[in-house]
Protein 1
Amino acid sequence: MDIQELVRGLKTPNDSKIVMLVADGLGGLPLEPGGATELETAKTPHLDALARRGVCGSMYPIARGVTPGSGPGHLGLFGYDPVKYLIGRGALEATGVGFKLTDADVAVRCNFCTLDAKGNITDRRAGRIPTEKSAPLAAKLRQVKISGVEVFVEPVKEHRFVVVFRARGLGGNVTDTDPQCTGTPPLEPVALDSNSRKTLEVAKQFLEQAGGLLAGEPKANGLTMRGFSAKPDVPTYEEVYGLRAAAIAVYPMYKGLAQLVGMEIVGEPNTLEEEIDVLEQAFNEYDFFFVHFKYTDSRGEDGDFDAKVTMTEAFDAVVPRVEALRPTVLIVTGDHSTPAKLRSHSWHPVPTLLVADDSRGDPCEVFGETAALGGALGHFSAVELMPLALAHAGRLGKFGA
């Protein structure tokens, strides 16, 4: 069953407000068997209070055992089947920095990295090089020239930048060059279908020229390419849910994904507190708000358990400001798990809570992975979250006679 097609026919307009707070990479693991996760270790009195008021559950972003990337993880939260609507990270990054993709484009998300004398990666993110240093390097790569192809290079944030190739006959099905580990050289890109062979050759030329331009840099002396993708075609929040939707985020990739599903980017916040400022200011203007917090994920990827705990506590601290707005439905979740123990995204379900006046409640007294296992939401797929939100907001009519 296509949940979105079902919802399209049942959507009912009203004046309700839905807020979805997303702590990226929220789920975690204990460092030792029987211990507490990062979320369970953190002091989260406000989230715990929400858990007592609402209902909790364990959410699978894609399917059991499948580790999601950030794009698919968020698409699931937004109610889009991530397998059906497979949007590459390149398109997300490009859209997020305001680049208008055309049907002749293939976008690629790139990372600056650090290479040793043998060409092996010693740091996949070039020491998380600050934006003020990485942006000039990205601009330097605009010197790359490829016959018959327009090449656009745009800085994103920290070690990230985006490259867009524009020409006829480009396909977006090319493999990543990031090996996802250190001590090995970047991978060679591979075209996975005949339509992408031209893109492969273009990418190889870009990598060769860019390598020469970056040689000698102290940290960002190399790059990797991820998420080759053409311009996607997806229905909007307005079309599917009848919602005027707003996105409040710091990082461009999440802004890009929100724009691709028809959300309006609101404000230009740089911190979580500023994101809540924007939410307060825009609250009367929209029906749905997606508010994204990045640093629970990045601290997990760094393998820093204590820092992820600290970021989780910072996330908890803004909850009273959101509650004060009295949204009809308040959801707290993550797009995937990023346990510090694994230093990466993982397949583990994400603790999720939903608060609404018509919630039945459940036995959960705290918000955490273990407690969520016994919550009333049960074990569910991310694509079911938006229909639940709409139902609690009174925005879904009855199905059938």
Protein 2
Amino acid sequence: MTEGNFVDYVKIHVRSGNGGRGSTHFHREKYITKGGPDGGDGGRGGHVILRGDKGLWTLISFKFKRHFNAEHGFSGSKSRSTGADGTDIIIPVPLGTVVLDSQTGERITEITEEGDVIVAKGGMGGRGNWHFKSSTNQAPRYAQPGRAGVERDITLELKVLADVGLVGFPNAGKSTLLSAITSAKPKIADYPFTTLKPNLGIVQHRNFSSFILADIPGIIEGAAYGKGLGHYFLRHIERNSVLLYVIPADAPDIKEQFTILNKELAQYNPELLDKHFMVGISKSDLLDEELFEAIKDECSRSFTEIPFVLFSSVSQQGLSALKDKLWGLLND
């Protein structure tokens, strides 16, 4: 899925370098006319390497370049000199990138921390003719060719890495909350699917502590089966440590909305229900004091063992309590 500079799914073609050919050279110098074989080995072909980079948050660079070829290894030479290895090609990717074989769908690796992962090994260099000298073959005129590199199509799928993920229907107030407690500036409007890409922000908490909050595009009923934005956004939720269900205070039935959201997550991946979570009732500034207390009592009955907070991103009411409870879940 793409919007603007956010790209979270691409297919690329990679090819590692071939190994260099071994040499069939024979030792020659003044006064030595029949020196033995001294052909060196070929160099290794370059690897294709994915490098996790915490400074990246999107796969946008792959919109403009989809083919990556490492350098071939160089041939061996005289005096048993090994040819130079081909230069590796290093491809920076964001943390949270899942790497799949495009043809089989097999998972190759996941990039969850900074460092290098080889996704296509360079071919080994061929051995030079000096390796093949024997008592019965004093002058071998044979050397190995280098082994071919690896050529493959791979799929890069980005799953946003965040501590807390916001889960809710369109227009539940998730983007407004993100803009209220972080410096992020997500698109906000009063129509469904304003958010078409995950947005991240850093929440500053007490004693200089902080955590990352992700605004995930809104869920609709049937999302697990591809309706609306479907699995394009649900996969981002898999990476969140804590889930915050955001339900507006003016919803017709708060408990029903929570039940539908929970059902969609369970149908997509039952393991999501094992995460810590809480409920945030947004837009509490729309309530008078009597209605505020009534909804608070309703939530106490509906969410007996689930932490919840009524808050308003506009008036800032309840935001400190919300951050405290999220921080407690993150450190539970």
